Amino acid sequence: MKDDLDTALAHLTAARNVVVLTGAGVSAESGIPTFREALTGLWARYRPEELASPEAFQENPQRVWDWYAWRRQLCLDVAPNAAHHAITALQDLVPELVLISQNVDGLHQRAGSANVLELHGSIHRIRCFACDRPGGDWPDPVGEVPVCRCGGLMRPTIVWFGELLPADVLAQAEQAALGADVMLSVGTSSLVYPAADLPYTAKRQGAFLIEVNPQPTPLSPIADVCLQGLAGTWLPRIVEALSARREA
Ligand code: APR
C-alpha cells in the first residue's frame, strides 16, 4: 500500500542517512504565500519575471528591492509551523539528517534546524549584484538599495529566473541524495529543476522514497510511500511514532 505509514516508519527506523527535501508546501500552514500568491495587491500588476530576475533588478533595482523587503516582512510576520518543528525534532531521531530546502523564508532555521541547504538562496541575506561579495543579513531598516564597497548594488541571495543555483550548495545536496537511505520529499510540486532531480538521484541509488503532499505530483509514481495530506499533520505523526519506537 502506497499510503503505508508503518512501512515508512520501518525504513526511517533502519536508516542511517535521512535526507529531507522541502518546498513551499512546508511553509503553507505558516501562512507564507507561495511565490505566485505573493504577486497580489500593489504587486499584482507585475509578472514574476519583472520582479525576480537580473534584468528586472538592472531595470529598476529599487522596485525589486522593495518587493523583497515586503516579502521578507511577510516571512518575519509568521511563525514556523508544526512541520518545521517536526523536521527539527527528526534531526535528533535519526543518525544523520540533511535538510535541503527550496524555500527562502528562513522558517526552518527559526524552528531550530541547522545547516539548511538553501538551494534557492535566502530572503534574509544579501550579496553584491556586481561583484558577488556577500553582504550579510538583510539590513534593517533600510529603504534605499545598499551599495557595495565596489560601487555595485546589493541584492537578495535568492536565485532569480535564468540564474544558476549556488554550485556548492547544489553539490552538497546531490552528495546527500547519493548517500541517502531514506529521502522525504515534503511540500514540493517536484516541477522545478534541478531541485526536482534530487529524489530521482536518491531513488536510483536505492533510497526509500517518501512523499508528503496533499496532491499527487510527477514524483508520486516512483515514491515508495505517498502520505497524502498536510506536512503539518504527517510530519509530527512520523516524529511521534519514531519517538515511541525508540522508547519501546
Ligand atoms: N503540506 C504539504 N504540501 C503542501 C501543503 C501542505 N500544507 N500545501 C501545499 N502543498 C504542496 C502543493 O500541493 C504543491 O505540490 O506544496 C507544493 C507547492 O508547490 P510550489 O508552489 O510549486 O512550490 P515548490 O515546489 O517549492 O516550487 C519550487 O518554484 O516558485 C519557484 O523558486 C520557487 O522554490 C520555488 C520553486
UniProtKB/TrEMBL annotation:
Its cofactor is Zn(2+). The active site is at H120. Its EC number is 2.3.1.286. It catalyses: N(6)-succinyl-L-lysyl-[protein] + NAD(+) + H2O = 2''-O-succinyl-ADP-D-ribose + nicotinamide + L-lysyl-[protein]; N(6)-acetyl-L-lysyl-[protein] + NAD(+) + H2O = 2''-O-acetyl-ADP-D-ribose + nicotinamide + L-lysyl-[protein]. One of its GO terms (cellular component) is cytoplasm. Zn(2+) binds at C128, C131, C148, C150. InterPro entries: DHS-like_NAD/FAD-binding_dom, NAD-dep_sirtuin_deacylases, Sirtuin, Sirtuin_cat_small_dom_sf, Sirtuin_class_III, Ssirtuin_cat_dom. Residues 1-245 form the Deacetylase sirtuin-type domain. Binds 1 zinc ion per subunit. Transmembrane segments: none annotated. SUPFAM superfamilies: DHS-like NAD/FAD-binding domain (SSF52467). Substrate binds at Y68, R71. NAD(+) binds at Q102, N103, V104, D105, G187, T188, S189, N213, P214, Q215, A231. Keywords: Cytoplasm, Metal-binding, NAD, Transferase, Zinc. One of its GO terms (molecular function) is histone deacetylase activity, NAD-dependent. Its main location: cytoplasm. Pfam families: SIR2. It is found in: Cytoplasm. The keyword Transferase applies. HAMAP family: Sirtuin_ClassIII (MF_01121). 2 residues (Tyr-68 and Arg-71) present in a large hydrophobic pocket are probably involved in substrate specificity. They are important for desuccinylation activity, but dispensable for deacetylation activity. Belongs to the sirtuin family. Class III subfamily. NAD-dependent lysine deacetylase and desuccinylase that specifically removes acetyl and succinyl groups on target proteins. Modulates the activities of several proteins which are inactive in their acylated form. NCBIfam families: PRK00481.1-3. This is NAD-dependent protein deacylase. The lineage of its organism: Bacteria, Pseudomonadati, Pseudomonadota, Gammaproteobacteria, Pseudomonadales. The gene is cobB.
